[in-house]
Design a protein that fits this description.
Arc Repressor Mutant, subunit A, mainly alpha, disordered N terminus, 39 helices, single chain, Rossmann fold, LuxR C-terminal-related transcriptional regulator, five-stranded parallel beta sheet
Length: 772
């Protein structure tokens, strides 16, 4: 969230917005009644600014503004790339393949306004997404900006015209005054009117020109615009003119900034500019100058300034790079910056600032993927492999839930690399990359993919007569131990610990220690498992690494479970869950809720109230499954986890009948957002939409009650002020949630819930909610 009181990613906007009040009011009202609006108009006319102002007025659970322009130059500007981009921007943590249903599932129950900016770069793909969301997510409204309409059913088009002359003059004066010019003098100068008329009232052109007034004056500016650029369109000539009036280093920085896929941070542009020959002590002044000239935009609402460029300005900078033949050099500098960024993170993630390290990498994900794309298209596959390997080694994709996207990128680069292997060094490098991709597949439960990738890696080593390398030993050991449940994997993990040497591989060595401890926890050797777990915990504590400590607690809980030390198991998993909740580690919580269910089920024989305990264990298994589904993880694809779940289920069924077990599991699946509270015995909030025992939203409950009264879809639509088709969509979703096939069954459901409410409503939990 960047604007107070608004959930989502709406950027703070403090620059003057002049005129267009009628258009703003009309569009805002329209968005309150229709679900799809496209703002159209020529470049520089102010579509994005108008959209931003409209979004600040809407009422919704969240407002998201996503720039499609970031995909414009990517080699794979297709639907799959768009889905991954949307998932990243919406903060969806999902480790499976990027597909449209991930987006739909995330949005379909939310009252969200989704703004898609600069759609002209990917019109067919955006059109398909919008069509699907309009049907499958009935509470989502979409505001698009595009130089062309999307041609979607139900689309309302709002043409954004240039500013009328009085508004253009006012905007010019506001920006010129902000740059240091005298407001009164400008208002009295007839040349200001002349300048704004020659700029056709285009806001971008007006802003760029106004930034030059302190140096030139309105009269000189009017002459320049009239004489030098008479044959060009207004937006083209003012951008070109603004560029030509920049000093050489400002022009160079303009071109360098245009290479970024998204908004960028000062350290990034400084690193690249310095490598390009600009003195490092000049970069801040140059950036400040370009901000004052409206070439760069700045957003400091999150505490750290992010700099961006409007689409037309960015395109002009890239055209100049191409014209000068510098595009390969600057792309190379961008690649080197990204490569250094992820390499540093991979080497230094294990420590007190590991959460900050992973967050820093995640913030740069658009640039990382853009760099990989350029490496692939330019044939620099070794750099693409190195970037992706270090990205995985930084652990950021695990924490932030982007392993599906990274797996796709890894597979793409691996496939392109096989035909390019020319020597032993290439073969070893590709083997290490395939092995790491195999390890990623192991962690999300894709055993077949893991086996295929590890086999290809080992085949490369054999064909090129290469010795065993640490990444292959580690990945294969992890596959055998966690994927297949084989005792032999432990020896390989022990060997990998020795092969990962040097300070740059401290994190890799620690990961081998971690997986080795987990493997021992599953293998049935209690004393060896305790020793391995203690070693792992001691390393994590010594490193003062909070994420690593949470996983060490998880491993210790597993070992205590196997040793039937219930006190230690309960204590370790509780500490683990508290740490993960504090870090918002959704990846770790998925594993911990599963393990918590096993620990609860394992204690049934000595429980004071076995049925309550069994219901809790079943509930937690349902919640764990819901988390895994949400994150795109299949832990039962790992044999030890499948065995652990089966064992817990068998213990539960010894206490509860099949119907009671299924009911508790289904309830946990519906209410998984409260899983940590349930596991820890904390109070579960009452009355929240997520906490309803049947999993229905408030709107869905309204629909059920009206169906129970015998109303048709058209009659319900009239009462709720929605369309009949939306009512039908609600009814279908409700039936799916409740497992019924006929509308008549909804009347029975309404009656049951009415009696439950009369009896005092929902309890905090369907069992005695004590700690595990």
């Amino acid at each position: 969230m960047t604007v107070a009181g608004i959930k989502g990613n709406l950027p703070l906007d403090v620059t003057p917005f002049v005129g267009r009040e009628d258009l703003l009011d009309r569009t805002s009202r329209l968005l309150g009644h229709v679900r799809m609006i496209t703002l159209t108009g020529p470049p520089g006319v102010g579509k994005t600014r108008l959209a931003l102002k409209v979004l600040q007025r809407v009422k919704a659970d969240a407002v998201w503004m996503i720039d499609i322009r970031a995909l414009a130059d990517k080699a794979r500007g297709n639907a799959e790339t768009l889905y991954a981009h949307l998932a990243l921007e919406l903060g969806i943590r999902h480790n499976g393949p990027a597909d449209l249903m991930i987006i739909v599932t995330h949005l379909q129950e939310r009252q969200v306004v989704l703004a898609l900016d600069n759609c002209e770069h990917l019109v067919p793909e955006v059109r398909a997404v919008v069509r699907t969301l309009l049907v499958a997510a009935p509470q989502v409204r979409i505001l698009a900006t595009s130089r062309q309409v999307l041609a979607v059913e139900g689309e309302y088009t709002v043409v954004v015209p240039p500013l009328p002359l009085p508004d253009a003059v006012q905007l010019f004066v506001e920006h010129a005054a902000a740059a240091g010019a005298d407001r009164a003098s400008l208002l009295a100068d007839p040349n200001v009117n002349l300048v704004c008329r020659r700029l056709d009232g285009l806001p971008l052109a007006v802003r760029l020109a106004a930034g030059r007034i302190p140096a030139l004056g309105a009269a000189d500016l009017a002459v320049l615009l009239d004489d030098r650029f008479a044959t060009l369109k207004a937006i083209e000539h003012v951008v070109a003119w603004s560029y030509q009036l920049c000093e050489a280093d400002e022009q160079r920085l303009w071109m360098i900034a245009s290479i970024f896929a998204d908004a960028f941070y000062l350290p990034a542009v400084t690193a690249i500019a310095t490598s390009a020959g600009i003195a490092s002590d000049r970069v801040v002044d140059l950036v400040t100058g370009l901000v004052q000239k409206s070439v760069l935009t700045v957003d400091s609402s999150a505490g750290t300034s992010r700099y961006g460029m409007l689409d037309t300005v960015r395109e002009y900078g890239r055209d100049r790079l191409l014209e000068r033949g510098d595009q390969h050099e600057v792309h190379g500098l961008h690649r080197d910056y990204v490569r250094g960024l992820v390499a540093e993170a991979a080497a230094g993630w294990l420590g007190p600032d590991e959460l900050g390290v992973m967050a820093g990498v995640h913030r740069q994900m658009s640039e990382i993927i853009a760099a990989v794309d350029h490496c692939v298209t330019s044939g620099d596959l070794s750099s693409a492999r190195a970037i992706l390997r270090d990205l995985v080694r930084s652990r950021a994709p695990f924490f932030w839930g982007s392993m599906g996207l990274i797996s796709q990128q890894l597979q793409r680069v691996i496939d392109a690399s096989y035909s390019q292997v020319t020597d032993r060094a290439d073969a070893a490098d590709l083997g290490a990359t395939a092995a790491l991709a195999g390890w990623v597949a192991v962690t999300v439960g894709r055993s077949d993919d893991a086996s295929r990738l590890l086999a290809s890696s080992e085949d490369l080593l054999v064909r090129w007569d290469l010795p065993t390398i640490a990444p292959v030993v580690f990945a294969d050991g992890g596959r055998q131990a966690l994927g297949l449940g084989m005792r032999e994997g432990i020896g390989m993990l022990s060997a990998a610990r020795g092969l990962f040497h040097g300070s740059d591989h401290a994190g890799d060595r620690h990961m081998a220690t971690m997986v080795r401890a987990m493997a021992y926890g599953f293998c049935g050797e209690p004393e060896a498992a305790r020793e391995a777990s203690d070693t792992y915990l001691a390393e994590a504590v010594k490193a003062q690494a909070p994420w690593a400590v949470s996983w060490a607690m998880w491993s210790s809980a597993l070992v205590a479970l196997r040793r039937e030390d219930w006190t230690a198991a309960n204590d370790f998993i509780a500490q683990c869950l508290r740490l993960q909740r504090g870090m918002d580690d959704q990846w770790g919580q998925t594993w911990s809720i599963e393990l918590g269910a096993w620990i609860s089920a394992a204690q049934l024989a000595g429980a004071a109230n076995p049925k309550d305990q069994a219901r809790r264990a079943a509930w937690l298994l349902g919640a764990a499954q819901a988390r895994q589904d949400k994150l795109g993880v299949t832990l039962t694809g790992l044999r030890p986890f499948a065995a652990g779940r089966a064992e817990a289920q068998a213990r539960i069924r010894n206490v509860l009948d099949e119907l009671a077990t299924a009911a508790a599991t289904a309830d946990g699946h519906r209410r998984h957002t409260h899983a940590i509270s349930v596991a820890l015995g904390d109070p579960v909030p009452r009355g929240t939409r997520a906490a309803t025992p049947d999993g229905l939203s408030e709107r869905e409950r309204e629909v059920v009650e009206l169906v129970a009264q015998g109303l048709t879809s058209a009659e319900i639509a009239q009462q709720l002020h929605i369309t009949a088709s939306t009512v039908d969509t609600h009814v279908k979703r409700i039936m799916a949630k409740l497992g019924v096939r006929k509308r008549a069954a909804l009347a029975l459901h309404a009656g049951i819930n009415g009696r439950r409410a009369a009896d005092g409503g929902d309890r905090e939990a369907p069992y005695d909610a004590r700690p595990i």
